[in-house]
Amino acid sequence: QWEPQNYDKKFNKFITMRNALTKSKNLVSIRILQSITPAYGKKYIEKFGFDSKKHPAFLTLALGAGTVTPLQLATGYAIFANGGYKVYPHFIQRIEDSLGNVLAMSNYPKSGYKYKPIIDPRIAFIMTNMLQDVVKRGTGRKALSIGRTDLSGKTGTTNDQIDAWFAGYQKNLVAVSWVGFSNPKTLGEHETGAAAALPIWISYMREVLKNQPEELHVVPDGVTAIAIDPKENFVE
């Protein structure tokens, strides 16, 4: 019998989706997937470049029961960073000879250029806004040490600490860190995404964003801010 639980073994009577994401309350994710149905969730993640064959249509899908590579996860998160548009990863930008002459240049499509968004830009913005809360006051708050306000991200820890993840981004850069073994085995009791993977992500992002200005996402048309009582989790 499957008995899902939150990492801290605690339960909340009422909690918003935003606070649940911020504090990694797994049961809320399961209830959301139960509401939209696992079959719909399995089909929907194809938009993000995930192979639906490797993601079973069960409630465990909400907790990462499928298989994904760091590159696939970065591609998926890039859709949020790009306001709903998908980008296609590539490894070679250009080829130069020993004198610096360009011999070949890649011609990959840019985000938003002649393409329709994969998801509604409003959804992309709201997800980014919620994932910013993960950094500001949730499981990813160690990232505040970078000293920026434009970071979004999410920790991830599989059962028995087999895998530790942190996927995060700002407007122009997405990075994913993963810690695990080639032959899966536990990393150790407390080796969570926040403890094992996030410090790697912080070390990288601190360097590559050192001289980059902060860039906050523009609120798209159709998004309205509504005050929520933080104690009761209800609309005021």
The share of residues in helices is 25-40%
Q: Helix/strand/pairing class, anyone?
A: alpha+beta
Radius of gyration: 19 Å
| Low-pLDDT runs | none
Reading side by side through the largest sheet, how are the strands ordered?
A: 3-4-5
Largest sheet: 3 strands, antiparallel
Number of strands: 7
Mean pLDDT: 89
**SS summary, helix count:** 6
**Tell me, what's the shape?**
globular
Distance between the termini: 39 Å
Strand content: 5-15%
Q: SSE order in H/E notation?
A: HHHHEEHEEEHEE
Protein described:
The protein is an alpha+beta fold. The chain is 29% helix and 13% strand. It has helices at 17-22, 26-36, 38-44, 70-81, 121-137, 193-208, and strands at 94-96, 102-105, 152-157, 164-170, 173-179, 228-229, 234-235. It has a three-stranded antiparallel beta sheet with strand order 3-4-5, with helices on both faces. α2 packs across α3 (38-44). The model has no long low-confidence stretch (mean pLDDT 89).
Protein topology:
Layout: H1 17-22, H2 26-36, H3 38-44, H4 70-81, E1 94-96, E2 102-105, H5 121-137, E3 152-157, E4 164-170, E5 173-179, H6 193-208, E6 228-229, E7 234-235
Antiparallel strand pairs: 1-2, 3-4, 4-5, 6-7
